[in-house]
Amino acid sequence: MKLDDKGILVVLSGPSGVGKGTIRKALFEMEGHDLIYSVSMTTRKMRLGEVEGKDYFFVSREEFEEKIKNGEMLEYAEFVGNYYGTPLKYVKEQLNEGHEVVLEIEIQGATQVKSKMPHAVFIFIAPPSLKALHDRLTSRGTESEELIQKRFDKALNEMHMAYMYDYIVVNDDVHNAAEKIMTIIKAEHARTERTIHGYEKLLEVE
Ligand code: 5GP
Q1: pLDDT in tens, 176-189
Q2: What predicted TM-score, i.e. pTM, was given to this entire model?
Q3: Which fold has domain 9-38+98-202?
Q4: 10 Å Cβ neighbour count for 47?
Q5: Nearest to residue 86, comparing CAs of 64, 69, 66?
Q6: What confidence tens digit (pLDDT) does each residue in 154-168 have?
Q7: Which residues contact 164 (CB under 8 A, 6 or more apart)?
Q8: Tens digits of per-residue pLDDT, 72-130?
């Protein structure tokens, strides 16, 4: 019997290069899940192998700024020269239909979601070490030295933001991390504040 009928908004965040994207993919490959990924919008150039509407919605700066102006973004951030953001409408619809919605976003965006949707679950993905983080940023091989250094400096600052999250999951192993996240989501469903309404109904005398 299900005591809660609303979906949970799950915010996966953490420094760039920590492996959020890989963990998110592993999470979605797990069997029997009812998770929906909110595809972000960005003004950055498409990388080789990326697909429009699957990895991102790729738009111009003008289009993005128009959407900000019209209040169409749940959150957005400018990250290393490009805009990234979450379209609000889709997230709202899916949550209302009872689906779990997963956002994979950087830290400024997560801070905005925290103030707008405090009942979301905030999970900080941490690297096993700073060296591992630097190695990951370098090995992606898609960016210049200068850009990698910028991302690393930013990531170091972001490591200090973990305290504002509900959970910290270390990415020592992708599948391990994905399983931990799934366990967190399941446990969150049993939280009293999410279930008390359904529980009270259960107590009603027929
Ligand atoms: P990348 O360029 O590597 O795809 O993404 C750069 C950073 O932007 C990553 O940390 C990624 O998680 C973050 N990001 C992706 N989509 C969003 C979004 O919708 N909002 C925010 N705030 N960050 C995002």
Answers
A1: 999 999 999 999 99
A2: 0.92
A3: Rossmann fold (3.40.50)
A4: 11
A5: 64
A6: 889 999 999 999 999
A7: 111, 114, 122
A8: 999 999 988 999 999 999 999 999 999 999 999 999 999 999 999 999 999 999 999 99
* Rounded distance from Cα 84 to ligand 1 centre (Å): 6
Helix ranges (DSSP H) in the chain: 20-29, 61-69, 88-96, 107-116, 130-139, 145-158, 174-189, 192-203
Query: Contact 99/7 with Cβ under 8 angstroms?
Result: yes
Angle in degrees, 0-180, between the axes of helices 145-158 and 130-139, rounded to the nearest 10? 150
Cα distance between residue 194 and residue 27, in whole Å: 23
d(CA 80, CA 70): 24
What is d(CA 143, CA 130) in angstroms, rounded to the nearest whole number?
Answer: 19
For ligand 1, say whether the CB of 17 is within 6 Å of any of its atoms. no
Ligand 1 contacts CB of residue 152 (under 6 A): no
Residue 1 has pLDDT above 70, yes or no: no
Residue 175 Cα to ligand 1 middle (Å): 21
Domain boundaries, the chain: 9-38+98-202
Rounded Cα distance between 62 and 135, Å, is: 35
Is there an atom of ligand 1 within 6 Å of 16 CB? yes
Q: How far apart are CA 105 and CA 6, in angstroms?
A: 22
Find out whether the beta carbon of 107 lies less than 6 Å from any atom of ligand 1.
no
Whether 158 is in the pocket of ligand 1, judged by its Cβ within 6 Å, is no
